[in-house]
Amino acid sequence: xxxxxxxxxxxxxxxxxxxxxxxxxxxxxxxxxxxxxxxxxxxxxxxxxxxxxxxxxxxxxxxxxxxxxxxxxxxxxxxxxxxxxxxxxxxxxxxxxxxxxxxxxxxxxxxxxxxxxxxxxxxxxxxxxxxxxxxxxxxxxxxxxxxxxxxxxxxxxxxxxxxxxxxxxxxxxxxxxxxxxxxxxxxxxxxxxxxxxxxxxxxxxxxxxxxxxxxxxxxxxxxxxxxxxxxxxxxxxxxxxxxxxxx
Length: 247
Known about the structure:
InterPro entries: Bbox_C (IPR003649)
Protein name: B-box C-terminal domain-containing protein
Largest sheet: 6 strands, antiparallel
Domain B-box C-terminal: 4-130
Coiled coil: 44-97
Keywords: Coiled coil
Strand content: 5-15%
């Protein structure tokens, strides 16, 4: 009996080993679950902040477009207002001389009309000669429209996994700059996503190392930063120990 018990206890060792291994797996799964949930919360917060920033930019654009539309409207209305004042003034002069001549014809004696005929004719000619009706036609048109550019708003981003990041490729490498004091080099770099769009992700998701070709040296550590002006373009700084081609 004792022998059988010992044999069974010995057979339990692999089972106990599997139990411990599974406990470690469960612990790792639980830890990874927490990391994924935390990462999910972080991404949601990033989305919220990104949309908030876009809304602020949109509000600024709205104010700019509104001011621009008001300025164009006011400028056109100012031109029309000046034309209207000129047209109204000329109309008033013409109506005054018309009323004067008509009143003279109705109430004046033949002698009075004959005496003032030349003066009235000259006055009418003077007024009509000073008016160019063609110039008083509306110079401005309601010909301004809003030129929309909202392509980027229909697709403001994607959720990119590490697998998708591995499918990205370098789109453009900028000019190299040598920082003499630190003996470092610096260059800009942009990355293209699988859908041909420019990749724009947090710096924590990007790592870059330079490997000398055919020299068996260790990869060169680099520092990755963003540029303040170009979205999707990062700047790489490093201190290479060898010259030649690097990948």
